[in-house]
Design goal:
Helix content is about 45%, strand content about 15%. The protein is an alpha/beta fold.
Length: about 425
């Protein structure tokens, strides 16, 4: 007899009678000394998917595919489906004749309402479908990076689109993976008007044009100084009210504004400008160099002293790139440092030297602590992917610099003296 545990409970104080047959989805299996322990769930979206697979043959045979499912157990659920065959309606297949298929699942979930949504790769269409049963007037992408959509509905549809306590829009957002901002047509119009006014004011102030020209620019779809500066001249000449002289003047003024901003930004960054040796590093770009300089890392030497883990919050620097730039900074002209702090083991020393494989340089290495055994140094030397030039201790960065300048070796590994 295998013990079975229902996790997350049911919902609405769901109770079961002895001997009652209950459908659940297996959440996890724990193998313990007293035998396997099985965790099952009736609140997981996976249960909804499995129930549809059992009730809808088109899903079971792959004709209809479930793309996503979300639930607020016991209350409402949404499931997105798509058909692999043009002549098969995915929503109709899931509903069944007179709703027979979906009603069977609703009974199993004890009255939980289910919205069956047709999936689309177009996020605007998918979002409009996901807000069912509300009817959507318009969907516009406001931010691709943050995955935000503005959804416009008629005033009488707004409360239905949002749902009780925001449930409908919340489930639709979870289903689509996009943030949905629902507005009535009046609210959307007011927002659009306010944004147009703001952009018009920007053009009037920065381009020194009158309100009429600013309004025309906004009406033609221009929303930034950059667009005016770099859009092809032929496109601006398509504006009925603009002639060649006006277009040229607008473009020149826009470029002057951008140039002034660029100069101001450069002057502001001069206080934290990176050193030339940092900018000249392989794989380094100006944006990353200035980001590092803003953190107080202005030179190649300062970068070489950093731990990769401390740099992961620098914009544009993930772990792989962090390893690459730090390793390049360490290079043949910088002393490498490894702090013993009394906890370096033979295995640790071998692993650390192994990370330097491919450098192909000679090293000065501090002797392995004697308590690791008389043969430890030889074993560590054998593990090193490059020859170790000497075994005298080098604990002073100044001494390391002298060795570098003398040409005695290419790189010095500086290890602080053992503590205690």
């Amino acid at each position: 007899m295998v013990p079975i545990f229902l996790i997350g409970g049911g919902w609405r104080a769901e109770t079961f009678s002895q001997g009652e047959r209950v459908r659940v989805v297996i959440h996890d299996v724990h193998r313990e000394a007293k035998g396997p322990q099985i965790e099952v769930s009736r609140t997981s979206p996976e249960l909804l998917k499995r129930l549809f697979e059992m009730e809808v043959p088109e899903i079971y045979d792959g004709t209809v595919v479930i793309k996503a499912a979300v639930r607020e157990p016991g209350d409402r659920a949404k499931i997105a489906v798509v058909s692999n065959e043009r002549d098969v309606d995915p929503v109709g297949a899931c509903v069944g004749m007179k709703g027979s298929r979906v009603q069977s699942i609703i009974r199993e979930l004890r009255g939980e309402k289910i919205d069956i949504i047709e999936w689309s790769e177009d996020p605007a269409i998918f979002a409009a479908n996901a807000l069912s049963p509300a009817k959507v007037s318009k969907v516009a992408v406001t931010d691709f990076e943050d995955k935000t959509l503005q959804v416009t509905v008629e005033t009488e549809q707004q409360s239905l689109a949002i749902g009780k306590r925001g449930q409908n829009v919340r489930l639709a957002s979870q289903l689509t993976g996009w943030t949905l901002n629902v507005m009535s047509e009046q609210q959307a119009e007011a927002k659009s008007h306010a944004e147009s006014q703001s952009v018009s004011q920007l053009f009037m102030e920065q381009l020194d044009v009158d309100e009429e020209i600013a309004v025309i620019l906004v009406q033609e779809g221009f929303s930034s100084i950059e667009e005016i500066a770099y859009v092809p001249e032929s496109e601006m000449l398509e504006v009925e009210e603009f002639d060649e002289g006006l277009v040229r003047e607008l473009r020149n003024r826009a470029r002057d504004v951008l140039l002034t901003k660029a100069i101001a930004n450069a002057e502001q960054r001069d206080g934290v400008a990176p050193a030339p040796d940092l900018l000249e590093m392989t794989g380094m770009d100006e944006t990353l160099a200035f980001s590092l300089a803003a953190r107080g890392i202005r030179s190649r030497e300062e970068l070489a002293e950093q731990a990769v883990g401390d740099l992961l919050d620098v914009p544009g620097l993930d772990e792989q790139r962090g390893v690459e730039v730090v390793r390049d900074a360490v290079g043949p002209q910088v002393a490498l440092r490894l702090d013993l702090n009394g906890d370096l083991t033979e295995a640790g020393a071998c692993d650390w030297l192994g990370t330097l494989e491919g450098v192909g340089l000679e090293y000065v290495e501090q002797p392995i602590p004697p308590e690791l055994g008389p043969d430890a140094l030889a074993r560590v030397r054998a593990a090193a992917p490059m020859p170790i030039a000497a075994d005298e201790a080098v604990t002073d960065p100044d001494a390391a610099a002298e060795l570098l300048l003398s040409g005695a070796c290419d790189v010095v590994v500086v290890k602080p003296a053992r503590v205690g």
